[in-house]
Amino acid sequence: MPGKVKYLGGVGDRGLGMELRHYREKAGMSCARVGEVLGWSANTISRLERGLRPETTAEEVSAILAAVGVTGPDRDRIMRMAKGYREQGWWEGNKTHLTDQARTYLKFEARATRIIDVEPLLVPGLLQTADYCRALMAAFGVEVREIEGRVARRLGRQAIVTRPDPPELVFVVSELMLRQPVGGAGVMARQVHRIVEDAERPHVAVRVVPAAVAAHPGLHGAFTMLQFADEPAVVFVEGRMSGMFPENPDEIAAYTLSAERLIDLTLGQQESLQLLHAIAEDLERAR
């Protein structure tokens, strides 16, 4: 008889656990101390914080928040997370203000040891210049009063590229996208120069799918895979108005295979850099 499959933690459970751990540590309390207050074992608290206790109830989360002294809007936000992940299917609304799920995605991004960002149609957000980002927002029909706030938040996320002990970053982009003069040839030339600068960092790889490769797995659409040292990977798929974190292990395995196959079709790092330089020169001449 096959053994019981080990539960590795769903995305929502892990996100909730990260929030609870953050506030426990902020209160200067150990798992054992919280367990002592609540009459639970330290192992129960630890498993919950690692997303390994899917049977946790909203009432139990409320008790933990009380034990570590979380009140007001922070408590309300975490309780929405505790009650809402399963009903929402872990969807993130793409609104002006960050949703609870978006905040948790940023926590996953900050903790990842390797990030693979597949972007066949757009420059990846972590590599975008302010002008390119503004041009995209205008093209997407974002209200003018919201654009600068969104640009500022996107650029703020880019600190992950230059922080100490950064994750390995792998960006998979297409030559055809890089040659599209979003915002005009000048804006796009500066954007490609920016990509070259980041691609020369030791922990950053930019791999380009050449125009000669007409059919490839990236045609299914963009996605981001976040990998960790000692826990399962997380996949994020961004849509027009929302984002989704697939939970099914077979689906995550399919995304992993797509990323591997797509990288195999790209130019090598040095060849990609050479092509990026050539594209930048072409755009400069077109200004």
UniProtKB/TrEMBL annotation:
<dbReference type="InterPro" id="IPR043917">
    <property type="entry name" value="DUF5753"/>
</dbReference>
<dbReference type="InterPro" id="IPR001387">
    <property type="entry name" value="Cro/C1-type_HTH"/>
</dbReference>
<protein>
    <submittedName>
        <fullName>Helix-turn-helix domain-containing protein</fullName>
    </submittedName>
</protein>
<dbReference type="InterPro" id="IPR010982">
    <property type="entry name" value="Lambda_DNA-bd_dom_sf"/>
</dbReference>
<dbReference type="Pfam" id="PF19054">
    <property type="entry name" value="DUF5753"/>
</dbReference>
<feature type="domain" description="HTH cro/C1-type">
    <location>
        <begin position="20"/>
        <end position="75"/>
    </location>
</feature>
<dbReference type="Pfam" id="PF13560">
    <property type="entry name" value="HTH_31"/>
</dbReference>
